């Protein structure tokens, strides 16, 4: 019975199901960290892009 339990534990350790979930969580954590670190730069970039879109939309409509 002991060997069977040990083999089951070894099989469990070799199993790779769930690794995708862990990897996705790590990617999300890194992305959130980058957003927090570069929050001011991202905000100014988005603001300048929207200002450019707004100013150029007047020329397109005329």
Walk me through this protein's architecture.
The chain has 62 residues and is mainly α. The chain has helices at residues 2-14, 19-37, 39-61.
Topology:
Blueprint: H1 2-14, H2 19-37, H3 39-61
Whole-number average pLDDT?
A: 82
Indicate the proportion of strand residues.
Answer: under 5%
Structural class: mainly alpha
Q: What is the overall silhouette?
A: rod-shaped
What's the story with the biggest beta sheet? none
Q: What's the number of helices? A: 3
In short:
With 62 residues, the protein is mostly helical.
What features would you highlight for this structure?
62 residues, mainly alpha, 3 helices
